[in-house]
Design a protein that fits this description.
The protein is of the alpha/beta class. The protein is about 40% helix and about 15% strand. α1 runs parallel beside α2, α5 crosses α7 and α7 packs parallel to α8. The chain starts with a strand and ends in an 8-residue tail after the last strand.
Length: about 220
């Protein structure tokens, strides 16, 4: 399913920043070439994480969200420029909690994704179906609809982007997709992109996330 190795750590709570980031840097900074680790830290911890990761090419800091504008009257929002200033080179878009708790629809997720890519950030774009949608046989249609607004600008819009299949029913529930289920979905995602551009599809990194731990 994946065409490169990338580990993603999403930190939901504020880090005890210098200690935790330093421990991560020491523990992960010596990974062999070809690995890449991105830590999506809370906004208040991005600069701390970025500082700890400085000089370690396999480690990068990312933000958990951004707003699709560089400036303006958007109190409480964080622009790609602000993330870059804090030391982030990545941003997360489309996480299920943003979609289902904050009400972000596919069009807004696509706007954020394209805007962030155009303004110098790499993007980890999350897509995934609910349990009800899977049981209704709607998995592929739901994921295709989530990806379609990004692809509407052409498959090249995914350059600099990684797609993460994160089924909502598996996030924090202890349930996980089987390898066969994950590979089936990854193949469908790649085929959707390949219908527009086979070269972009071949190079697209696709990840799985959802209750992943060392034991599984």
């Amino acid at each position: 399913g994946t065409s490169a190795r990338l580990s993603c750590t999403v930190a939901g709570n504020s880090l005890s920043c210098s200690q935790s980031a330093g421990e991560l840097a020491n523990g992960l900074g010596q990974l062999p070439a070809g690995h890449e680790v991105v830590v999506f830290a809370p906004f208040t911890s991005i600069s701390c994480v970025a500082d700890a990761f400085n000089g370690k090419p396999v480690l990068s800091a990312g933000g958990q969200n951004c707003y699709p504008a560089e400036e303006g009257a958007f109190t409480g929002e964080t622009s790609p420029a602000m993330l870059r200033d804090a030391g982030a080179s990545w941003v997360l878009t489309g996480h299920s909690e943003r979609r289902h708790i904050m009400g972000e629809d596919d069009a807004l997720v696509a706007r954020k994704t394209i805007f962030a890519l155009e303004h110098g950030l790499n993007v980890l774009l999350c897509i995934g179906e609910t349990l009800a949608q899977r049981e209704a046989g709607e998995t592929h249609a739901v994921l295709a609809a989530q990806l379609a607004p990004v692809l509407a600008l052409g498959a090249e819009s995914l350059e600099g982007c990684i797609v993460a299949y994160e089924p909502v029913w598996a996030i924090g529930t202890g349930l996980t997709a089987t390898p066969a289920q994950a590979q089936e979905v990854h193949a469908a995602i790649r085929a959707q992109v390949a219908a527009l551009d086979a070269d972009v599809a071949a190079g697209l990194r696709i990840l799985y996330g959802g209750s992943v731990k060392a034991q599984n």
